[in-house]
Design a protein that fits this description.
single chain, Recoverin, domain 1, about 100 residues, two-stranded antiparallel ribbon
């Protein structure tokens, strides 16, 4: 399997692991997103307990403003943009991508 296919498979698996714990199995609530960020991206984020950072990410990802984040919203370029915003606002820890 190619690196991109592996990455997409892992992204789908991670999303599915947290989606639906509070209802709809195809979306993330703000609490589910916070748990995903803490457990899956905690090594990159300085403070996943920071409510402001989670609110910023959730607001940015929830493009249709239905108070949930579906997989399309989660995987859209907003993920990259959000990571960049967090980095720029110093919410991300320093890291070297290999």
């Amino acid at each position: 399997m190619s690196d991109v296919c592996t990455a997409m498979s892992l992204l789908i698996k991670s999303f599915s692991k947290y989606a639906g714990r509070e209802g709809d199995p195809h979306t993330l609530s703000k609490a589910e997103l916070k748990e995903l960020l803490h457990n899956e991206l905690g090594e990159l984020l300085k403070d996943t307990a920071n409510k402001g950072a989670v609110d910023l990410i959730f607001k940015d990802l929830d493009t249709n403003k239905d108070n949930s984040v579906d997989f399309n919203e989660f995987t859209a370029l907003h993920v990259i943009n959000t990571c960049y915003l967090l980095y720029r606002n110093k919410y991300l820890k320093s890291c070297t991508l290999k």
